[in-house]
Amino acid sequence: MNKKNRAWVYCRIDAPEDTHGALKGQRQQLIDYADQMGFAVVGSSEDLANGLSFDRPGLKRFAEAAESGNVDVLLVHNVSRIGSDTCQTMDYLERIAQVGVTAYSPLEGKLSFSFQKMVQDMISYSAMDQQ
């Protein structure tokens, strides 16, 4: 591969306090994953918000970079970091795909539009977040 895919690292947590360094841990995991995959990290953003609203400053910064053609890949810890609502998250993944961006997760690989897989993943991660 001559040209590295340009990656954006996006992190999100729900809790107002980051007592365990969750954002820092997500970010480092995604940077390591980008290196492993041969992606060049060109930007990053984070949000401290729930996943029901897509009106988040960090997600908007990514969207602006994607719509400008400056990003090829979105890296997230897991699909639930994009959003908690399955239908909205699928719609978001479809919209970024239309501008040439593919989402990846170190836990799930390339994020697909499979409704069944996405529902299973979101239920699984929601249960993990509850623990």
TrEMBL record:
Q: Name one GO molecular function term.
A: DNA strand exchange activity
In what residue span(s) does the Resolvase/invertase-type recombinase catalytic domain sit? 7-131
This protein is called Recombinase family protein
The record's annotation in SUPFAM superfamilies points to: Resolvase-like
Give the keywords, sorted: DNA recombination, DNA-binding
**Short name of one Pfam family for this protein?**
Resolvase
Domain of life where this protein originates: Bacteria
